[in-house]
Every structure is written in C-alpha cells, then in structure tokens.
C-alpha cells in the first residue's frame, strides 16, 4: 500500500498517488514501501501442522466430528470406543493435509526453480558503481541492470537499453501466456544515458504515478526531470514475470516491488465457483442433521419413558455402575449417546470422496487424445477439479466469434478505394495469384488475385497511394529487421498485421520506427514521417489515429475504425457508396474497417498539442481527458476507403453447434462485429438455419425505441403461444445490446431471448458480455458456459458457471482465466457430451449410493433401540463400524464413480439427446434423495428383523444356542455388506478389471478381516479390543445362517431390480432405448469363383446431392440481406422460404 509521508506530528494518510525519487533510498524509505521479498508458499516446516489443522477445522463436517470425539471421551455418554471416530477423522485429516502439503510444495518448488533458472541475482547502482545483490533486497527507487534472458522480479521503469532508441524485447508468457516477443521503449530523455554508470547514478528524476493495482495493461504516471514533465504509460514499464529477450542489457528504475507488483496484485484468490450439486449437498446435509436430531430426540424420549416405567425393575439384572434414578437426565445423556452412534448418517468421508472422484474425472479430460491439437502441441486441460459434473448440466453456451468460432488468422481479402475501385477476389482455380516480384520486400506468404489493384498502384493514382500509405502509418506494429531485407512484424492483433502486410506487398513497406519517426519505403523510395501523436485504439473508441508530419512539412491525421463509429466523424463524401460496399463485405462474413484522413491546420494543431501534452502528463483522470481531446481532433474526416479481412471458420464448428443444439443447449454468440458479418457467420456455422420459422431483429437507437420493439415482440410471443401452443425454431439477433440497459428492458429482453433457439448479440463490449452472462445466470438459474480465446473474453469466462478458454491467436489470457482449456472449438462437444455427461452421471450414482449405504447402515441401530431399552447400544462390532466406510465400501464406490459408463463415447456423440437429463437434474435431486432415504429405511428394517427372527431361539447343530448378541451382530453386518455390494453391482453398467477387483475384493477382505479379528490369537493378545472371539468360526459354518444371509440380501435387492425393470418397460429413458438397438449382423456370402474384370473404382460422392441442387434446397436464402432489416415497427420477422 502506498503511503504519503508526513511529519511525526500528524498521522500517516493513504495517498491517491505514489511518489518516489531515483537513487534516493533515504527519501523513499519515508513512505515505507515494501521490499522485494515475496512468500508464495502458505506453510513452512514449523507452521504446517497448526495452520493446516486450523484451516481444516473451519469446515463444519470436520468440526462436527471433532465434537463427537470429545463426546466419546465422556464415560456417561459414550457407548462406543473413541477409536471409531478418531480413525476416520484422522484419515480424512491426513489425506487432506498431504494434498495441501503437496500443492504448497509444488507451488514453492516451481517458483524457486523458475527464479533459480532465470535470476540468480541483480546488479544495482550504488555510489556510482554496480553492486551485485539478491532480488529480495532490491528497493523502490533503485536503478538496476537487467541482462539478456533474465527474469524481471519487480515492476521496473525502462530507462535505457543496448538496442537503438531505447528498445527492449520481452517475453510475457508468465503474465498472459503469449510467447511472441513484445517491444518496450524508453523515453528519449533517459535512453541517451546508455550504459554510462555515472550518468545513471546522477539521475535524480521524480516519479509520480498511480498506486499499486492489478491492471496489467494500464499504468499512468509522470517523470519530472530537469524541470520538464514526461508522460509514462505501460509501454515504458517492464512488469514482474516477464523475461528479457534478444537484448544484451537494459537499465530500469524500480517502481513497484514485492507484493505491490502488478503480477502479485493479480495473484489473489480466483473466483470461487461452486457446482449446483455442491449447493444441493449442503442443503441435504442440513436435512440430515435435522433428521439425526429428530431420531436422537425420539430415542431419548423413549429411554426416559422406559426408565420411568420399566427400567427401575431391571437394576438388579443389568450391570449398571450407578443407577440414574432421574429418567429425564437419563434421556438427556442417551440423546448425546445416540448422536455418537448415529453419527454415520452424516457422512464424514463424503467431501473427500467427492474430491477424489472429481480429480479422477479431471485426469480423463487431460488424458483424452481426441481433444489434443497436434499443430500447437496443446492438449485439453482441466484447470480446475471442482466443476466436472457441471459440464453435464449446461443449458446456455455464450461464445465469442473471432478466434473461437473462426481461426483468427487474418488475410487481406477485399477493399474499396475512393468509392469507385473495389477489388474482387477471383476464384483461385481460374485466376493465378499475383506476382509481387517487382517488390523485393514483399511477403512471400501474402496471396492476392486481382491485378487491377496492382495496376492502380503502379499508375501512381493518388487515392490508391494514400490508401496504402494510411495502412502503413496508422498502426502500432513494430518492424524487426535482424537480417538485411528480412522484416518481421510484431503486431498487437492479427487484423493489424494483415493490413500492414498488404500495404507492404503493394509497395508501402513499414521499414522502421522510433519514438519520434516512422520510416516507410514508398514504391522503393524511403520516406521518413515525423510521428507527432498516436491516438490509440480501445474497445470503446473502436478506432485509432496517428498525426504525422510529411517530408513536405504538411500535417496529416490518418484514422481507421468501425463504420458505426466513424460515421459521426465524416464530412459526407460518398458515405452511402462506402456503406454499400461495407455491408456487402460483411454480408459474406468479412471483417471491415473504414479509413479516413484530413489535413490539419498548423495553428490549431499546436494549440491541441499543448493541451494533449498536459492531459498525457496528468496522473488523475488521464484517460477521460485524452478521450475528449481525441474526439475534438477526429472530426470532419474525409473517407479514403474500406478494408475487408477474412477470418475463416475453424474445422468442425458447424457439426459441433449442430450436435450441441440437438442436446437442447442454447447457444448465444456475443461478438463485437457488425450485424451482417455476425449473421453470415451464423449461417456458416449452422447457428442460423434455412428452415427457421421466425427471425427477430431488435433494431433501435434509444432505450425508448427499444422498449416499443420489445413490448411488440412480447405480444407476438404471447399470441403465438396462445394460438399455436408452441413456437419452435425462433432466432433473435440484437445489433446493439447496450440499448437494453434498463432493468425492466433487461428482464423483457431475457424473456424473449430465452424463448429462442439461438441468439446473436453484435457490437458487444467485453463488459457487456459479462453482463449478459450474469443476467441469464441470475434470472434463469440455468448452468451457463462461456467460451472465448482473447483478453476481451476474460470477464465473460469468469462470470459464467463454467469458463472455457481456447488457445488461439490472441494469447493465453482466456486460457489462464478459464476452468477448462483446449485449442479448438470442436472439442467442446466431446467435453460436454462425453466427459461432462459421464462425470455428472457418475457423481449422481455415487451420491445416491453413498446416502443409501449410510442410511441403511445407521438405521439398524434405530430399530435395535426398541429391543435394548433405548440404551444407546450398537448392533455391530466396533471394528466393523470403524472399517465400514474406510475399507469395506470405499473402493467399490470409487470404482463405479470413476469407470462407469451407461453408454460409450460413440453413442454419447451420436445421440446428443442423452445429454438432456443432466440439464433437468433428473439423476440426483431432492426427490431422489428422499427415495434413497426410503430405500435405506426399508433395507434397514429387513436387515434387522430378518436376522432377528431367524436367530430367535435357534440352536446350532451341536445344540448350542445362536441367539446371542455376537451372532446377531455378525449376521447383520454380513447381510449389510452383501446388500450394499449387490446394490453397487446392480448400478454398475460398464465393468472393468478394477470394478471386479474392488467390488468382489471388498467382500474377500471383509471375510479375511472378520476371521482374523475374531480369532483366538488376537483375543489372547488384546482381549479388550477383540471381544468377538470365535464368532465367525462358530456362526458362519451353519447352513441356516447362510440361508438367512441369502434371503435378507435378496429381499433388500429385489425391489431395486423390480422397479428398474418396470421403469425400463414403462418409462424408458433415451439411454435405455439406445441400449436396445441391435446392429444387424452381416450375412456371410458363399465363397465362389467368378470370371469377372477387376476394378479399382472409388468415387468419393454421396447420394442425394443431385436432388439438393435441382430443387435449390442447398442454396442459402437471401432473406437476411441488409435491405430487409428495415421496418417501421422496428421488428424484423421473416418466414423462411425453406
């Protein structure tokens, strides 16, 4: 935190700006800026145990079982050994602690290894000499030296470098995942110091800048040096996390250190996302606590009643140490005793088991080779392990267009110049590509086919030269010429790179730039322009401009931007002609820009430049002041032309959208592109269909006009529902979502949008994308997924229930902010329809079985209470109680939850309708939970009363009685384990070797442990711990005992089997129907020898395309061309010709 230093007579106050002075530690220490020491690990050797235990006992479940453990230490309350609670609790704590320790150590080791590899120390200037020091001792205001390939571990203001004009090249992979090199440039006033240590040591500049924040792409400050002020921005700042590349050395001034660096400011806790099943489990656990309290209260009243009316007469026969004459107090004690005995109804291992299952299903995503993209060597990655089952419940998908649905590899395709010349991309099959050999600096990868544009350039038409001159000047591309004639452009966006490359090939080559100049090779002649100002691009302005002085001394402003923005900045010169061309370009899915310029008056510019310098050196409200100045000078522009850049669809996008739509997932495309471009991309990717019934386009300029349109649409929907009962294949297109900003309009818009099959929102800003996602998520309660590839999609990705990042051309910011990541949009269908669906079904099966087995296990104690005077005695052996959840039933349920498949991946993709039950929460909900409880109550009744009745007054073959407690306990627990094992066997559809091993192996382990623990040997060693001596040996050799076990198990399993069969026959699910499909077997043909001519014929063709062509069904309807968008009512509805 930055602090303003004040004398000791006044308290320190938090400042709005940060002040520091170069090479003056004494001055800077007054502000108490932190040193460059950062601790990334959470624990150390001494604090791990107490801190981790404190964190774990913040969880209610762990605290609850700790409370039970304390209760079990009270002799008057506990009827169970404390080991039955402490062993499961310790195991849960140990597993979690080991996981936390590994995670923390991996984080520490990664950071330590990274720093060790890239930065063994740093040189900083002290008393006119370079001193070597550890990074942790660097302070704010120090001037440090960085060397090539060195890791930057503080936020540093670039002062000078080994490269010309104070340039440095950095890699920001640790910040945003982008591997392409970026260029930073020092101020000219500091870059002239070079490597002069004395000049750098004498540098005493004052910095005033913003306080520490987490905005990686923004920095505002001023440098005051020798009486002059110089503006500072993020282009002058080297951030912690970047690596110096291709630069021998550079010097920089430390601005932020340690926890105040922008990287560390971004390292806070990520947005916490919880699944719908997590929220449901929390509710159900509260229900279980309530159910437990009711049971314990009932049994406590039963004990009090029994004590008052009957218990007094049994004090002679029962071995009570001290008889409690007060029945109410006895009931109070029994209440807590039953809380201990029935605690297993609250599952201690539930959350640990859930995390293990989620982790395993996450590995399946990471290991899926069918989602691996070899071109980028990028596999699918589950970046979180807590949201897997949510992938099987998605109802809405919000997708970016550029780079997500399209390739984001831009190619200059068409242009219009001066309103007359419009280039046309001829068919490559008929027209040879242009030969640019006349231009020695042309890019060999650039492809174009229309000769007329080359001829226009060669004839030196002024408007054509001005067009390409603008493209080569109005940009922020950094040319890099490492070898003579080998130019490499470092572009901020693929669009800009494509436009500059086009200008390069047509004879206007961006050769080099300095902070003050830009050199263009114009038709072979070097021309140097003086760069006076760059009016930078942002998502709100949607345009950029440069102001340059030509060699002739004239001032020019060149501007490029969106037509919707520049329309208000033009002198009306042929705008309608340009608008026609731009709409035509957009109509075939191309990305368009308009180009404009004007000549500036010298006196007016000087006045503007003075105010611009003042605004650019302002620390407060700099952006707002600059925006006003930009608006002022970008007026009365003259159109030069327009460009169209092609961005092709990714492979597999149409099929993916088709499959997801069949899965009843609604897809919304949120794009910043114009309406016509978005509509045609919508057709190309099958989002919009030829057979759609209605297309609604909300086109309005003001919120009031939008309200009229929405009310009319709502009335249309109401009438349609009343008269036709349903409205299918409706689609909504919103040219500008910003007009629906009022609260009432938002809800009405949502009503309309959610009634449509697909929605396309155009001209959407990044913040508006997040608002749309939040609107749908909040008011529909549906599970949402957002997918994008760029930094402008990060807010949308974080707002959705599930965020998916696509590794595209715009860097890795979307991936780094996502929950799941892969390289191509087409992998989304496999992520949802296969992995998401499997994860959801496995989790639901796990929860149903988990609650069933715990209720069945626990409620047997409840029925036993009626036969033991409600004295809080247990049915089972204490060792069985301890091992039931930890050993006997843990692995079988994990095997089912990790390997089970109702259908394989082929059928999951072939029949997307299988996905719908997850959207409706059909596999696990509150009703399913109640069914589990009822099933558990029934099974517990059978498990108690059948063995009880079978053993009542029975004897062995040798005449000895078997109706004793130990025999009953052994038979009851054996029946229980066989019953829950049969239940999981019935639920298992896909059997693997692990399923067989874990399920049947658990029974083998049970019998092995039983015979061992109930043996004479262990009893002789520890008599008090193993009191069931000889029980297994004496009981399990009786035929009637096995008959009892068999009948009990069958009676418990029979209802499940019967109900499953009835459901399959009367109300089969889509999955059940698919399982009944039997592929016809190919009949074997008799082998016979024929004398026939052999043929190698193979023709890759399919039947039916002839009919499509002759009927015209394969032709795209021209219904959605821009002229049809106009309507006096503001609503556009069209009947499909199909």
Automatic annotation (TrEMBL):
GO terms for molecular function: ATP binding; ATP hydrolysis activity; ATPase-coupled intramembrane lipid transporter activity; magnesium ion binding. It is an enzyme of class 7 (translocase). It is found in: Endomembrane system; Membrane. The active site is at residue 400. Residues 21-86 form the P-type ATPase N-terminal domain. The chain crosses the membrane at residues 64-97, 109-128, 283-306, 329-352, 846-867, 879-899, 929-948, 968-991, 1003-1029, 1041-1063. The keyword Membrane applies. Pfam families: Cation_ATPase (PF13246), PhoLip_ATPase_C (PF16212), PhoLip_ATPase_N (PF16209). Its cofactor is Mg(2+). PROSITE patterns: ATPASE_E1_E2. Mg(2+) binds at residues 400, 402, 789, 793. Its EC number is 7.6.2.1. Keywords: ATP-binding, Lipid transport, Magnesium, Membrane, Metal-binding, Nucleotide-binding, Translocase, Transmembrane, Transmembrane helix, Transport. Residues 815-1068 form the P-type ATPase C-terminal domain. One of its GO terms (cellular component) is trans-Golgi network. ATP binds at residues 400-402, 496, 537, 560, 591, 671-673, 763, 769, 792-793. It is a multi-pass membrane protein. It catalyses: ATP + H2O + phospholipidSide 1 = ADP + phosphate + phospholipidSide 2. Its main location: membrane. CDD domains: P-type_ATPase_APLT_Dnf-like. Belongs to the cation transport ATPase (P-type) (TC 3.A.3) family. Type IV subfamily. PANTHER family: PHOSPHOLIPID-TRANSPORTING ATPASE FETA, PROBABLE PHOSPHOLIPID-TRANSPORTING ATPASE. This is Phospholipid-transporting ATPase. It comes from Callorhinchus milii.
